[in-house]
Amino acid sequence: MAKLPKEQPVVLIMAGGKGERFWPRSRTNSPKQLQKVYSNKTLLKETIDRALTVTSMDRIFIGTNANLKIEILKKDPNFPSNNFIIEPEGKNTAPIIALSALHFQKKFGNPNLIVLSADAFIDPVKEFTNTIKQALFETEHGLVLLGVKPNRPEVGYGYISAGKPTDVGYQVKAFFEKPDFKTALKYIKKKNFYWNPGIFLFRVETILSEFEKHAPSILQALKNGFPFKNFGDLKNAFALLPSEAIDTAIMEKSTRIRMVEATFQWDDVGSWMSLERILPGDGFKNHHQGKEVYYHKAKGNISSVQKDLVAFLGVDDLIVVEEPDVLFVSSRDGIGEIKSMLASMRKNKVLQKYLD
User: Domain MannoseP isomerase/GMP-like beta-helix: where (predicted)?
Assistant: First the structure.
């Protein structure tokens, strides 16, 4: 096995999403990654603290937009103000990873780069640290991603099929997009199938080489102007780029990819439904975040409420979220329509202030 590099890795935290499925806590100007969802820290601060177990603060960077940079520094004024990779517009993950790789190549040379999402639940942190350190051994051979052993037939995640063992992981046989429920049931019965949590590791020169090979239109548009003299030039370059995920642009096409199994619990904290997997519950599958709660002939409810007491009487499968200006109530069956509801609300000028 190769020796672990002495140079600390660089970490890129992806924090540009809108988080609409966590409305009303998540708003346009203060999305879920800037909110406290399952602890007394924001999701972004949880991710920064996690990253600090594998590198130093000066090597942690946040990928986001200009408006959110301001909000992030308001929430965490101690974070280095120069450690941001700013995207002029959201174009999914491939363009900002390519831009970041060019930036890190210029600044650091050819370091290991770890790409994390700002909105994941990971526990225990010690196992995250150990898994990352193990995965860094594999970056000398190409691209690396983590795989999470599934514990339920989840239709909201992509899946990875692992192949032959490597030093500390596996070769990747294939990627599978989000399945239907019947297919997900088949996947979780296979010992070599894993969830794809979107945690990537690679040498900067390796990922740039893979962009050159598999997504040259993205890389060349950025290389032609890099380093950009002003934000306007970067904006013009971004306008030419396709909106594409790193998974489809690079990972699913590369022949130099390995997977390391994660030894920690992971959840993407994608919607209010994820709280039932993170928060403790009672014997009737009720999950509450807040002060006092009382259930009488009620089951399957999820609540995040600020009042001193919330009581549920004879109701099942409700989601109740309280913010100072909004009370949101949904059925479990209806929660999937939240984005559609918000799009409809945006057409009403009176309701605009509750969205932004």
Answer: 299-342
Q: Which residue has the tokens 């003299």?
A: 229
Q: Check whether 250 has a pLDDT greater than 80.
A: yes
Q: Are 61 and 213 in contact (CB under 8 A)?
A: no
- The arithmetic mean of pLDDT across residues 277-283, rounded, is 94
- In angstroms and rounded to an integer, the radius of gyration of the C-alpha atoms of the chain is 21
Q: What is the dihedral of CA 286, 291, 296, 300, to 10 degrees?
A: -10
Residues 102-135: pLDDT tens digits? Answer: 999 999 999 999 999 999 999 999 999 999 999 9
Q: CA 6 to CA 329: how far, in whole Å?
A: 51
Evaluate whether 308 touches 323 at the Cβ level (below 8 Å): no
**b/e for 31-47, b at 16 or more Cβ within 10 A?**
bbbbbebbeeebbbbbb
Residue 234, C-beta contacts closer than 8 angstroms, at least 6 positions apart: 86, 88, 225, 228
| Residues 20/347, Cβ–Cβ less than 8 Å | no
Phi and psi dihedrals of 106, rounded to 5? -70, -40
Domain ranges of the chain: 10-267, 272-354
Q: Is domain 10-267 annotated with CATH 3.90.550.10?
A: yes
pTM over 0.90? The answer is yes
- 62-94 burial, b if ≥16 CB within 10 A, otherwise e? bbbbeebbebbeeeeeebeeebbbbbbeebbbb
Spatial separation of the C-alpha atoms in residues 207 and 4, rounded to whole Å: 19
Sign of CA dihedral 35, 41, 45, 46: negative
User: How does residue 5 score in pLDDT terms, banded at 50, 70 and 90?
Assistant: low
C-alpha distances (whole Å) from 308 to each of 90, 142, 278, 289, 314 are 39, 53, 22, 11, 20
The answer to whether the beta carbons of residues 86 and 66 sit under 8 Å apart is: yes
Q: Would the pLDDT of 2 be above 80?
A: no
- pLDDT tens string 186-219: 999 999 999 999 999 999 999 999 999 999 999 9
